[in-house]
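Q: what sequence does this backbone want?
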């Protein structure tokens, strides 16, 4: 049974090219574009670049894993492609990454998802391409930070995870462009919670006029937390930041409706009208 001691990393250009050919022969045309991109990245990265791609072989050289190591902050082992028969080989790849300081692992869910789940991986949202992801959660707690998103790429995977969970159709290219336009115009702001640099929670605040206050109000929506990070106080961080954002924008009321509202009871929403919860935000002067 393969273990970490039998793992071989292909480090020179010829080895890496043979490695990609093996992947190409196994994965077929569906992976061709991804493999072309990986090949370009391998040619451009500096020798010994710890944060780049790593080509790993196990067994007789026919069990393969193409992985990427996260930086000092993120500490993620991303398994980009994997062709493996043995659970021991899967464990060896994870152990290899963790020995190099990684604290959690992630890969796109494939036909062998159940085999990875035996190692502790859990279904956990989507990636930026809309592929369902598996995550081996970090063992310990780590500080989380909350702030306004800097751009759509920061939270796009969370948006796709949100729509996959709701069962709706995710925004297409036109919808994505409209979302960017609304952000640029100040009509909507997105807030993310990050754990070691990784976005794990999301919400949006849209601006509208309220006849109740005859003033602008904020609507809290798009609340999504990756399943592996639920129950850790992320929702409270999102609501608190949304209220802070509204106050700074002169918005005097924050509301939330529907199923989302039921989850947010006790987080500062003191008014209830039907399915709507609201949080008054008295105008504050500095």
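A:
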């Amino acid at each position: 049974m393969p273990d970490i001691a039998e793992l071989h990393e292909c480090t020179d250009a010829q080895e890496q090219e043979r490695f990609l050919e093996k992947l190409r022969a196994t994965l077929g045309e569906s992976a061709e574009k991804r493999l072309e991109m990986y090949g370009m990245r391998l040619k451009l990265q500096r020798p010994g670049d710890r944060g780049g791609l790593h080509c790993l072989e196990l067994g007789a050289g026919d069990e393969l894993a193409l992985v990427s190591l996260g930086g000092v902050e993120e500490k993620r082992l991303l398994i980009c492609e994997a062709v493996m028969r043995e659970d021991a080989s899967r464990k060896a790849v994870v152990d290899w990454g963790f020995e190099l300081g990684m604290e959690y692992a992630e890969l796109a869910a494939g036909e062998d998802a159940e085999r990875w789940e035996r190692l502790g991986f859990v279904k956990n949202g989507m990636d930026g391409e809309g592929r369902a992801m598996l995550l081996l959660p970090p063992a310990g707690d780590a500080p989380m930070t909350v702030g306004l998103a800097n751009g759509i790429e920061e939270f796009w995977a969370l948006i796709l995870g949100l729509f996959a969970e709701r069962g709706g159709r995710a925004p297409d290219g036109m919808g994505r462009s409209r979302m960017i336009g609304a952000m640029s115009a100040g009509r909507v702001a997105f807030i993310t919670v990050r754990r070691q640099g990784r976005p794990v929670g999301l919400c949006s605040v849209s601006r509208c006029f309220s006849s109740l206050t005859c003033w602008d109000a904020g609507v809290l929506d798009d609340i999504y937390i990756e399943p592996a990070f639920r129950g850790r106080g992320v929702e409270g961080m999102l609501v608190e930041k949304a209220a802070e954002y509204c106050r700074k924008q002169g918005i005097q009321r924050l509301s939330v409706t529907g199923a989302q509202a039921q989850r947010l009871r006790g987080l500062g929403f003191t008014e209830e009208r039907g399915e709507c919860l609201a949080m008054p935000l008295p105008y504050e002067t500095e």
